[in-house]
Design a protein that fits this description.
Elements lengths: L6 H14 L5 H5 L2 H19 L4 H24 L5 H14 L2 H4 L7 H14 L19 H13 L8 H21 L2 H21 L4 H25 L9 H17 L1
Helix pairs in contact: 1-4, 3-4, 8-10, 9-10, 11-12
C-alpha cells in the first residue's frame, strides 16, 4: 500500500481535530469520553441493524458513524497527550501479528478451533497480564446477558472446560428444566429465578455448540413475533374489535391464520 491508501482515514482525523480546536464546533468541543458513551452504544446498535440488510450505502454510513466514535476518542486522548489514532492502529497491528503465529510465524493451526486455543494461550503470556488472570477475563461487563453468557462459555471452552459434543449440552437443558419445575413447585421466587437463569445459560451453551448466535436468534424470533402480532392487531381492527374484547382462543385462531399465511408465502 502507498501513503495515499490511508488518506481517507487521515483526512477524517484531521477534520475531527479541527472540529475540536478553538473556533471549531461548540458541540464537538464540549464532548468528553463520558458523554460519548451513549453515542457509541447507539451507533453500534444502528450498525448491527444495518448488517442485517442489503443496503450497502447504509452499511457504509453506519460503519462510518462507528469509526467516528473511534476517531473522536483518539482526538480527545491526543489533546491530553496520552495517545493518537496512529498509536491505536499500530497497537492493533502488532497484536494481530503476535496472535497469528500460524500466519506470520512457524506455528501450525489447521482449524479455527486451534486458532482460538492458540489465541488464548498467547493472551495468557502477554506482557502486563497478571499471572492469576482467569481464562474468562476480558468479557465486557456491559454486554447483553445472552451475548455475555456465550462469550464466557466460549472462553472456558478454549481451555478444555466443555462438553465433548452438543448432546451433553442438550441433556443439560433437560436437567435444568426439571430443576426449574421443582423450583416452581416449591413456590420460592429466589429458587425460580436461579433455576431460570441456569436454564437460559444451558440454552445459550447449546446455541454455541450448534453454531447459532443466541443474541441474533432471539432477536430474530422477537422480530417475527412483533410482525405477526401487528398483523393480528390489524385483522382484529378490520373486524371493528379490540384485542381486549377477544378471547384468547379467538386471538390464537387469528395468530395461527397469520402464521399459516407466512408459511404458505
Amino acid at each position: 500500500m502507498g501513503t495515499d491508501d490511508f488518506s481517507g482515514v487521515r483526512r477524517l482525523y484531521e477534520i475531527m481535530k479541527r472540529l475540536r480546536a478553538p473556533g471549531g464546533c461548540p458541540w464537538d468541543r464540549e464532548q468528553t469520553l463520558r458523554t460519548l458513551k451513549p453515542c457509541l452504544l447507539e451507533e453500534t446498535y444502528e450498525l448491527l441493524e444495518a448488517m442485517e440488510g442489503e443496503d450497502l450505502a447504509l452499511h457504509v454510513e453506519e460503519l462510518g458513524d462507528v469509526l467516528l466514535q473511534v476517531v473522536f476518542q483518539c482526538a480527545i486522548r491526543e489533546e491530553e497527550g496520552r495517545f493518537t489514532l496512529d498509536d491505536v492502529a499500530g497497537t492493533l497491528a502488532e497484536k494481530l501479528v503476535r496472535r497469528h503465529p500460524h500466519v506470520f510465524g512457524d506455528a501450525q493451526a489447521a482449524t479455527s478451533g486451534q486458532v482460538l486455543r492458540n489465541w488464548e494461550a498467547i493472551k495468557q503470556t502477554e506482557k502486563g497480564k497478571p499471572p492469576d488472570r482467569s481464562a474468562i477475563d476480558g468479557v465486557p461487563a456491559a454486554l447483553p446477558a445472552l451475548l455475555k453468557a456465550q462469550r464466557v462459555q466460549a472462553k472456558a471452552s478454549r481451555v478444555g472446560f466443555d462438553w465433548k459434543d452438543a448432546s451433553g449440552a442438550v441433556e443439560k437443558i433437560d436437567e435444568e428444566l426439571g430443576e426449574l419445575k421443582q423450583a416452581i413447585a416449591s413456590g420460592s421466587p429466589e429458587l425460580v429465578a436461579g433455576e431460570m437463569g441456569d436454564l437460559l445459560f444451558s440454552l445459550v451453551n447449546t446455541c454455541r455448540f450448534l453454531d447459532v448466535d443466541a443474541e441474533s436468534a432471539l432477536e430474530g424470533t422477537t422480530r417475527k413475533f412483533a410482525r405477526r402480532f401487528r398483523e393480528v392487531e390489524r385483522r382484529i381492527r378490520e373486524q371493528g374489535r379490540s384485542l381486549k374484547a377477544c378471547t384468547l382462543a379467538e386471538l390464537d385462531a387469528v395468530w395461527d391464520d397469520v402464521k399459516r399465511g407466512e408459511t404458505a408465502g
